[in-house]
Amino acid sequence: MANPTLKRIASYARYLMIPAALIVITYWLFTTPPGLLGKADGIGYAVCHRISERSFHIGDRQLPLCARCSGMYLGAMTGLVFQAIAGRKRQKFPPWSVGIPLILFVLAFGIDGSNSYLYLVKSVAPGALANIPNLYIPNNILRIFTGSGMGLGLAAIVYPAFNQTVWVEAEEKPPLGWKGFLLLLGVTIVIDLLVLTESPIVLYPAAFISAGGVIVLLTMVYTIVWTMLTGQENKFTRLRQMWLPLLAGLTIAVLQILAVDLLRLWLTGTWGPIPLG
């Protein structure tokens, strides 16, 4: 049972959320760099270091997210779309035949990320951590593949968790079985290989899809939180009935991105990568 005060806030939110969303989103749009890619940069700026050497480029312009984050959010979006098509309202988490490979993907993400960070520290501060050897020289190929694996893991958790929270009647099946997982994995590998061609035809949509993945994941998570706090769990039968929780989730997601953007801009004074010197 939700707190009565929170229920009252939820009832007021029906009237306040639309203007709140307009204020937050409009302020973010006017604060971030101009142009569509500039807005995508503003999203990436909140979640990614955006170091140029660790990013893909369209000509001289780097993508909004580094190679690892691009892979992660492309993988997450691929996983979410795949489950929405194949699983719809299914709410069970993946079986172990899928869960074990996903755990291995997460471990690979952690190992490659740690090795890459160690390599970065040694490159910007010669002599630092000299007694700790690198496992291998990091590269963008490994970054995008390990990032994609992490993204699939995020999607495999967030999608059924969302369904468990919002629907009156959800199917007692996982949206992702092992056969579907193999197909999804194949699709993800093809997408990664296409990105690695660094063709502008691929990188332009990849830039927007990966940046959009940040918004989608955060919106889903905050929609879950809002629904639980306001006592609306398992009250919906159609997506259109969820306009208020979804709008609340989107508004909180953009507010978080805006807050991080402003803090990082205040600390660094630039919309560019995190300064290494």
Task: Describe the model.
It is built from eight helices and two strands. The protein starts with a helix and ends in a 9-residue tail after the last helix. Helix 3 packs across helix 7 (200-229) and helix 4 (96-124) packs across helix 5. It has helices spanning 4-31, 36-45, 67-86, 96-124, 140-166, 178-196, 200-229, 243-268, and strands at 57-58, 61-62. The mean pLDDT is 91. The protein has one domain (4-268). The relative contact order is 0.18. With 277 residues, the protein is mainly α. Strands 1-2 form a two-stranded antiparallel sheet. It is 68% helix and 1% strand.
How is this structure best summarized?
By secondary structure, the protein is mostly helical. The protein has helices spanning 4-31, 36-45, 67-86, 96-124, 140-166, 178-196, 200-229, 243-268, and strands at residues 57-58, 61-62.
Keywords:
277 residues, two-stranded antiparallel ribbon, 2 strands
Estimated radius of gyration: 20 Å
User: In sequence order, what are the helices and strands, one letter per element?
Assistant: HHEEHHHHHH
Number of helices: 8
Mean pLDDT over all positions: 91
Q: Termini, distance in Å?
A: 52 Å
Give the percentage of residues in beta strands: under 5%
Q: For the largest sheet, list the strands in their spatial order.
A: 1-2
Based on DSSP secondary structure assignment, what is the total number of beta strands? 2
**How would you classify the helix and strand content by structural class?**
mainly alpha
Share in helix: 55-70%
